[in-house]
UniProtKB/TrEMBL annotation:
The keyword Transmembrane helix applies. It comes from the Bacteria. This is Tricarballylate utilization 4Fe-4S protein TcuB. Keywords: Membrane, Transmembrane, Transmembrane helix. InterPro entries: Citrate_utilization_prot_B (IPR012830), NarG-like_sf (IPR036197). It comes from Ramlibacter albus. NCBIfam families: CitB, PRK15033.1.
Length: 373
């Protein structure tokens, strides 16, 4: 615990040092929300450092524009300093706090091992029951795993993930003391989050590629991933309404709303994560924090595997292989939700909170400017 505290304080101090230099230069003031928020401060305490770190979208534009970037003696690399502190934010505000160390262990090997382990467990369970390979069941998943069993298993894991992430965000927000969030601030923060406004490099041309060219690929692959995830979630919600409200039980036709939403979401969760993996492998070594790439790739791999196995399940649901495909799919989905509160997904929660604080601040008088006047 003492070592973690030391790492957090060091990361906070480095963000503060770099922001002092940037505050004197201000060349990047129009690039993204970080720099206007920076100009409202003369010094940067721990809360300010965590706020700015989570406001940063790691687009790399400021690094490529900076005259003080490495190999300059000032060694200004805002994307890396912010990325290194962001993961410390996740650890410091994790709930329960004792599980914060999981962020450093949640890498590609752990993610895949968890998914494969749960998949093998469910496959063996079906084999012991004699249900691993059976006559076609016309897509009736609940003939393989009872409905109430699935609801209990995934309901508990999902609620735990929501609780853990929600408590962490609450602790982060309370430490910021931003003031009241007016409806306009909430709406604009949500708009900025859903459109990934600050992945445009501040000029609309996108992030810098590894060879310094501007590109919108990172923004587009993020959109495929996020909206693919939301479409899959919508499919689950619609199916829940069908089941409990209208009494329409699965399996649903290929032309039904839950299946259409799930299929479109699954395609998005193939294209988006595949693209993000490709970009992650090609990123310039000065972009962000390379030590966090295993955590990034673990989350990307679970999203991709959950989607791929889900689409395979849809394709074979009317065959005798449905039970095997269902067990493998459920294993990866369970692994995704088990690791959700202590992996890369946390960045979305804390970034929305930081964007909300930014919009609240924008609606308040700038005391530094008032003092200058």
């Amino acid at each position: 615990m003492q070592q973690l505290e030391t790492l957090i304080r060091q990361a906070e101090a480095e963000v503060g040092r770099q922001m002092q230099v940037c505050n004197a230069c201000r060349y990047c003031e129009t690039f993204c929300a970080v720099f206007p928020a920076m100009t409202r401060r003369l010094s940067f305490d721990a809360a300010d450092a965590h706020y700015l770190a989570n406001l940063c979208h790691n687009c790399g534009a400021c690094l490529h524009a900076c005259q003080y970037a490495p190999p300059h003696d000032f060694a200004i690399n805002v994307p890396r300093a912010m990325a290194q502190l962001r993961v410390r934010t996740y650890e410091e505000f994790a709930w329960p706090r004792s599980l914060g160390g999981l962020y450093r262990r949640n890498g590609l090997a752990v993610a895949l091992a968890t998914g494969l382990g749960l998949a093998v467990f469910l496959v063996l369970l079906l084999a012991m029951r004699g249900n691993l390979w059976h006559e076609p069941l016309a897509g009736n998943f609940y003939a393989v795993f009872p409905h109430n069993t699935l609801v209990a298993m995934f309901g508990i894991v999902f609620l735990w993930a929501i609780l853990a992430l929600g408590m962490g965000a609450k602790r982060f927000w309370q430490g910021q003391s931003p003031g009241d969030a007016l409806p306009g601030a909430r709406a604009e923060a949500l708009h900025d989050a859903l459109t990934l406004k600050y992945l445009d490099g501040g000029h609309g041309d996108g992030c810098n590629d590894e060879d310094d060219r501007f590109t919108l690929r990172r923004r587009r692959f993020h959109h495929f991933t996020f909206y693919g995830f939301m479409l899959c979630f919508a499919a689950t919600c619609v199916a829940t309404v069908y089941h409990y409200v209208f009494g329409w039980h699965a399996p649903y036709a290929f032309t039904s709303l839950p299946v259409i939403l799930g299929t479109l979401g699954g395609i998005g969760l193939l294209v988006g994560p595949a693209g993000l993996w490709w970009l992650n492998a090609r990123r310039h070594p000065l972009h962000g924090d390379p030590s966090q790439r295993p955590m990034d790739r673990g989350f990307i791999a679970l999203l991709f595997a959950s989607s791929l196995t889900g689409l395979i399940l849809l394709a074979v649901r009317d065959t005798g292989a449905m039970g095997l495909a269902l067990a493998v799919h459920l294993g990866f989905v369970m692994a995704l939700f088990l690791t959700l509160p202590y992996g890369k997904f946390a960045h979305a929660v804390y970034r929305v909170a930081a964007l909300l604080k930014y919009q609240v601040e924008r609606r308040q008088p700038n005391r530094l400017q008032l003092g200058a006047d």
